[in-house]
Design a protein that fits this description.
Blueprint lengths: L5 H15 L3 H22 L9 H12 L1 H19 L10 H58 L3 E5 L5 E4 L1 H6 L20 H14 L4 E8 L5 E12 L5 E10 L1 H19 L3 E6 L4 E4 L1 H7 L17 H18 L2 E8 L6 E12 L5 E10 L1 H36 L6 H23 L5 E2 H9 L9 E4 L2 E4 L1 H20 L9 E9 L6 E9 L12 H14 L2 E7 L2 E9 H4 E5 L1
Parallel strand pairs: 12-14
Antiparallel strand pairs: 1-2, 1-5, 3-4, 4-5, 6-7, 6-10, 8-9, 9-10, 11-13, 13-18, 14-15, 15-17, 16-17
Length: 590
């Protein structure tokens, strides 16, 4: 059997009536219809001795459901309906006097009951609204608590609550992670200042004392995590007031700034390196205005006592190079990320031109956007003087080598003169000495460090035919090592001499092609050189190899540590050289 408590029953009725949201006219019409129906029921089923019996609950119900206005209206209408249902036309006052008294008493009592019912209805409505507000407030409190819990759990800051003695009473989940604490109970109640080292311990104690006085403090200190990982922290300490407004507890928020501290230390090291460097180090904004140069830069260009913030990049260069910097160098930095090359600085006091190796790189913000330019520039005056001295010495060496070769050539010619069978040998020896002189000229031009293969071929072959017409050269840039340069020059001389005497260069139509290529990469890269003759007289293999052929194959095979072979094809002689690139060359370019 279901039992419904009266309070709960009335509460449900009021809730149901409030949800109906009927307009005023509708409520009065419903009250009228209900009272009239009760009146008919009274006439049909209730004796005249109990004329008001059914009207009482109906009026109370109308007041409870429809409100005070319809309830008072129903009380008056019920009284009128009851009098109408009791009276007759035969009676001079419609109903006896006692019925009028009863009707008056009924009306008074019903008005009172309606007022009480209406007040009950309003009270139930207020209670329901307050209950809904309380439920909503509790829901919001739960949501707020869940939100704060998620914030504390997600925060990378270590948020702690201390008692007034500085002992730990709470630590956020995020704080436990960053402090590498798996169970807060392991540190609960521990004195918080004891976690700090050195000056941080004194700062922590001072911050706790200040919080007791109602003051907030912050400091930066070093403290290890629970597992011993060293970290730097930025700490804010503030009091938590109690109900009386006095400090009741202490809030401590610690932020891990280890990476920031490392960046600051790295920046400090960079600043110290820049200040102590002997190279010119400077920085400028994208509009060209300079905002930093180190002491070495000031000494290099004579800026002692000058306000560098009033200068621009263009002020450091002679007028003829300013356009190069603005239209070539800086756009290259934005496009390629760097630029380096030789330029001249201008001394601000004497106007002297200072040769420098100017290296520029972009300065960007945290988002990678260009905000300026930086430079590390090296004074090239000593190197330029050394290069000039070396160039002078090489020139002198080349001149003396030529003189020596000329003397050797003259001595050989004088010695062999008058000996008929030695005349051809004398001519060959002289030609080979000339080829040797050409090779040494190439080497002295590069300080005996290397020789460009194409330049060497031009010098060795140009006496035997026009380059580009009778002699065709093709191949990438290859810089030969000095020890193979002389051997290669002599080999080219022998090949060209043979071609001029017997091969493609002995007539007016023949062509010689010298081609070289680089195959593979890295340590396995190979250099292949091909000499091909076409258009000359038919070629037949010689019965024996002469000195020149032996010189070509043996010397090149020895110096290049590779393969050197000659083929006497009918259409023309073919010579092929193959060697490891690292054995023959030191610089490779396109």
């Amino acid at each position: 059997m279901i039992r419904i408590q009266p309070a709960r029953f009335f509460d449900r009725i009021v809730a149901w009536s409030l949800q109906l949201q009927l307009p005023g006219a509708a409520r009065y019409l419903i009250a009228t219809a209900l009272v009239v129906a009760i009146g008919w029921g009274r006439v049909l089923f209730v004796p005249d001795t109990l004329p008001w019996l059914l009207f009482i609950p109906a009026t109370i119900g109308i007041a409870l459901v429809m409100g005070k206005g319809p309830g008072l209206f129903a009380a008056g209408l019920s009284t009128a309906t009851g009098i109408v249902s009791l009276g007759t036309l035969d009676h001079p006052t419609w109903v006896p006097r006692q019925q009028w008294v009863a009707a008056s008493l009924f009306l008074i009592v019903m008005f009172g009951l309606v007022m009480l019912t209406a007040e009950l209805r309003a009270s139930l409505h207020r209670a329901r609204r307050l209950n809904e507000e309380l439920v909503e407030s509790e829901r919001q409190a739960v949501d707020r608590q869940a939100f704060l819990s998620s914030v504390l759990a997600s925060s990378t800051d270590c948020i702690k609550v201390l008692d007034l003695d500085g002992k730990l009473t709470f630590m956020s989940e995020g704080g436990q992670r960053v402090m590498e604490i798996s169970d807060f109970n392991e540190v609960a109640g521990c004195p918080w200042p004891d976690f700090w080292q050195g000056a941080g311990n004194s700062e922590a104690k001072s911050a706790v004392d200040a919080a007791k006085r109602g003051e907030a403090r912050s400091f930066i200190g070093k403290a290890d995590t629970y597992r011993g990982t060293p970290k730097w922290w930025h700490v804010a300490v503030s009091p938590i007031p109690g109900p009386d407004g006095r400090p009741d507890r202490i809030l401590s928020v610690s932020r891990d700034i280890t990476n920031l501290r490392a960046s600051e230390e790295e920046r400090d090291r960079f600043v110290r390196l820049a200040e102590n460097s002997t190279d010119f180090i400077g920085m400028a904004r994208t509009d060209g205005s300079v905002f930093y140069v180190n002491d070495a830069a000031k000494r290099l260009v004579g800026l002692d006592g000058t306000d560098v913030t009033q200068l621009t990049i263009a002020d450091f260069f002679p007028p003829e190079q300013v356009e190069t910097v603005t239209r070539v160098v800086l756009p290259a930095v934005e496009r390629d990320g760097q630029w380096a090359g030789e330029l001249n600085f201008r001394h601000f006091q004497s106007g002297e031109l200072i040769p420098v190796l100017y290296s520029v790189f972009p300065v960007t913000d945290t988002a990678g956007a260009l905000i300026g330019y930086g430079t590390v520039t090296r004074d090239f005056r000593e190197r330029r003087r050394a290069e000039d001295d070396m160039r002078l010495m090489n020139g002198e060496l080349a001149h003396r080598l030529k003189n020596v070769l000329a003397v050797v050539q003259s001595v050989a010619a004088q010695t062999l003169r008058g000996i008929p069978e030695a005349e051809a040998a004398s001519q060959s020896l002289s030609a080979r000495l000339v080829a040797l002189g050409a090779a040494t000229a190439v080497l002295t031009g590069t300080s005996w460090r290397s020789a460009d293969l194409r330049e060497l071929a031009n010098r060795a072959l140009s006496p035997h035919g026009r380059i580009g017409e009778r002699i065709l050269l093709s191949g990438p840039r290859v810089t030969l090592k000095p020890e193979v340069t002389v051997a290669f020059a002599l080999a080219l001389h022998e090949l060209a001499t043979n071609a001029a005497k017997y091969g493609a260069l002995s007539n007016e139509t023949g062509v010689v092609t010298l081609a070289w290529s680089i195959d593979g990469g890295g340590a396995d890269a190979t250099l292949a050189v091909y000499w091909r003759e076409n258009g000359g007289p038919p070629v037949t293999p010689p019965e024996r190899k002469g000195f020149g052929s032996v010189l070509i194959e043996r010397s090149l095979r020895s110096y290049f540590s590779g393969k050197a072979a000659t083929e006497y094809r009918p259409e023309g002689l073919v010579f092929e050289l193959q060697a490891r690139l690292q054995d023959a060359a030191i610089v490779i370019g396109n």
